[in-house]
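ingest -> validate -> predict -> emit
validate: passed (alphabet ok, no gaps, 205 aa)
predict: started
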Amino acid sequence: MYDRLVAHVPDGVAVYGLQNVSLFDPEMDMGDLDATARWYFDLIDRVADGGDIHLLGWSYGAHLAFALAKLIEKQSDSRLISLTLLDSGPTPEPGYITGAMSLQESIDDFCYAFSINHRFSTVEELVDHAVDVAPLWPGIQKSDVRGMLKSGATATEHLARPTQGQVHADALLLQAGVDRYIAFKGAMIRLTDDFLTKIKKFVRQ
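emit:
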């Protein structure tokens, strides 16, 4: 689905991917969303070496990219050139997420995400099923499942206390098949049906 985006990356622009650390070290505590952004900023800052930065975040990574954008602009108003949020959306209404997920909620959320139609009460049961009984993909390891469980739970906790505010760099929100939200000049806008019909043409251009 995203392969066509590659054609729009200018020649000579280096692209670096940042993976969720929880996938590799489920025991690592990254702190809240802003603390996580500061951890990733140190990596980005070393690689960018004072140069321009374009950020793109996918799904939960879009919320992390927004937190990173605010942090980069705080350090230097000119380094952040653009912010692209891909297949994400606004955080839930206040109170919808109250904080840390319970173990059962994490297991159920994982099963829903991977269309596993079984009920598990322990992590071990889920891990054995996803690795040995019905492997999610060839070569999957038990550490992969544990890492994804941790990653999902961390993302949910972060969305309970999202980063708020605005950025000044040019920003764009892309949604696959969903035309409900856009980002314009750093501000997240929720579109009403009436306004949506007036702005669709402009956004697609």
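Confidence is low (pLDDT under 50) at residues 178-205.
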